[in-house]
């Protein structure tokens, strides 16, 4: 039986690589587009080791319209796209806003220009809970008002959502989009062949934890302990990356089935939050490793607390996460051990 082709931009990245694996295992034919500006080519070997096949990969910048058009020319019959390709470090975006606006918005615009030429109408967009800003109430639902972003990164996600809504309103069904608002992806594939692979100093909590446990970092810095939360540290909704990847498979199938509206939005999280200190304690419990950590000043752009209401995804997508926090952290540690020092 012929597989349905799905283009995955940023498919060699952390979430993208796991989505590629889940797509293939669900019977699709994923095609990767990635310029490897924030990923490593070794990821392709990891995907190959898991699946036993070579997934096609085009080493191009998604913002290069000519190169992107060439991929569509080469890979006739693409039915849908998952658009991950974007810069994603909140702190860096505060320091280099133009880099983020140019890349994150520019790549989406390029994609939207090329898609109609090749009759591709289905797009799953990698959005973020950052569009909720600092919410007035928790948990946040898809109807929670979006707010001014606390970082340029978050603003690019909000602007991309606005663009996709505007395009849908005039495209008469030529572009259909599912916006997946992620909470905090953590963990790694059970095989430990792919996982989070930060280049340089990690921007996310869990790689910093695992690198500290592995002796790569002297200590973990917890940014702020005076937030209005039970233990003073930030609260986030930590979702296993494999669960998150599976949500994309469900979203792709929904688009291909033609159900739902021209633009739909779904939160993808676990439905509850954990503080940074709780994550540290869970890691110690799951792995038996004590962590050396210290308290530092709060970071610019950090939201005190946010976690998802996942009722809509459960009822309309039929999707629910299954992995526990301890399981996700144990998989992160297993992945870190394969990386060594």
UniProtKB/TrEMBL annotation:
Q: Pathway listed for it?
A: Carbohydrate metabolism; galactose metabolism
Give the UniProt keywords, A-Z: Carbohydrate metabolism, Galactose metabolism, Isomerase, NAD
Keyword NAD attached? yes
Which cofactor does the UniProt annotation name? NAD(+)
EC numbers on record: 5.1.3.2
Query: What enzyme category does the UniProt record give?
Result: isomerase
Share an example GO biological-process annotation for this protein.
Answer: galactose metabolic process
GO molecular function, one example? UDP-glucose 4-epimerase activity
Q: Name one GO cellular component term.
A: cytosol
* Residue ranges constituting the NAD-dependent epimerase/dehydratase domain according to the UniProt record: 6-269
Q: Which reaction does it catalyse?
A: UDP-alpha-D-glucose = UDP-alpha-D-galactose
- Keyword Isomerase present in the record's keywords: the answer is yes
Q: How does it assemble?
A: Homodimer.
Belongs to which family?
Answer: Belongs to the NAD(P)-dependent epimerase/dehydratase family.
Recorded hits in NCBIfam families, A to Z, give:
galE
Q: PANTHER family from the xrefs?
A: UDP-GLUCOSE 4-EPIMERASE
Descriptive protein name: UDP-glucose 4-epimerase
Which species is listed as the source? Answer: Hymenobacter elongatus
Q: Which gene encodes it?
A: galE
């Amino acid at each position: 039986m012929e597989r349905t082709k799905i283009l995955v931009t940023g498919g060699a990245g952390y979430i993208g690589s796991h989505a590629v694996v889940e797509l293939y295992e669900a019977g699709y034919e994923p095609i990767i587009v990635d310029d490897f500006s924030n990923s490593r080519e070794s990821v392709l070997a990891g995907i190959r080791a898991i699946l036993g096949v070579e997934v096609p990969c085009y080493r191009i910048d998604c913002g290069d319209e000519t190169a992107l058009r060439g991929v569509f020319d080469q890979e006739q019959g693409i039915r849908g796209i998952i658009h991950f390709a974007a810069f994603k470090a909140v702190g860096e975006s505060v320091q280099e806003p133009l880099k983020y606006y140019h890349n994150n918005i520019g790549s989406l615009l390029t994609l939207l220009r090329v898609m109609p030429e090749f009759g591709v109408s289905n797009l799953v967009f990698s959005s973020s809970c950052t569009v909720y800003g600092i919410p007035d109430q928790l948990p946040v639902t898809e109807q929670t008002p979006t707010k001014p972003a606390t970082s340029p990164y978050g603003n690019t996600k909000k602007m991309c959502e606005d663009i996709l809504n505007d395009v849908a309103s005039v495209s008469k069904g030529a572009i259909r989009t599912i916006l997946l608002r992620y909470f905090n992806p953590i963990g790694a594939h059970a095989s430990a062949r792919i996982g989070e692979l930060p280049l340089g100093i990690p921007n996310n909590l869990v790689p910093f934890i695992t690198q500290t446990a592995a002796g790569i970092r002297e200590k973990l810095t917890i940014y702020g302990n005076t937030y209005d939360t039970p233990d003073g540290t930030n609260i986030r909704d930590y979702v296993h990356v494999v669960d998150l990847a599976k949500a994309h498979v469900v979203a792709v199938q929904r688009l291909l089935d033609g159900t739902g509206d021209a633009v739909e939005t779904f939160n993808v999280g676990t439905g509850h939050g954990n503080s940074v200190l709780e994550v540290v304690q869970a890691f110690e419990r799951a792995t038996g490793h004590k962590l050396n950590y210290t308290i530092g000043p709060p970071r610019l752009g950090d939201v005190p607390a946010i976690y998802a209401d996942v009722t809509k995804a459960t009822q309309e997508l039929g999707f629910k996460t299954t992995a526990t926090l301890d399981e996700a952290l144990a998989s992160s540690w297993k992945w870190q051990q394969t990386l060594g020092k």
